Amino acid sequence: MSDHSKYPNRRNPKFAVSMKDAVSTYLKAQGLEEEYKEKIVLGKWEELVGKPIAMRTDSLKITNKILYIKLNSSVMRNELSHRKSEIIKIINTEAGHQLIYDVFLS
User: Fold this and answer.
1) Does the global pTM surpass 0.85?
2) Which domains does the chain carry?
3) Closest among 8, 1, 104 to 59, alpha carbons compared
4) Which three-class secondary structure state does DSSP give residue 73?
């Protein structure tokens, strides 16, 4: 058996796998896909909600499908309490699935 048949040429399109697919497969196998998506979405916080909200956000985390937002402004906290469903929709749309189902503000 030639080396070529044991180890297919990685440039052969028949065996080509995109980096995105390889990473996705690895994350699924390790049970890390959901955590990875959480990090990606939270990393886009300012882009998703705008600079004024992002500037008043001290911390973000997702635990058990609940988004915890710590704010440094009581006025912003009050405003966002009325926009919870909008935040949930924005986050879930960005994730491509139901990443969160509630928002907790502090």
Assistant:
1) no
2) 32-105 (3.30.300)
3) 104
4) coil
- Supply 66's token pair: 């609940």
SS3 23: helix
Q: What is the DSSP string of 36-73?
A: HHHHHHHHTHHHHH-HHHHHTEEEEEEETTEEEEEES-
Degrees (nearest 5) of the Cα angle 38, 106, 95? 20
pLDDT tens figures, 15-38: 677 887 787 787 677 767 778 888
Closest alpha carbon to 45 in 31, 57, 30: 57
Cβ burial of 80 (10 Å; 0-12, 13-18, 19+) is: buried
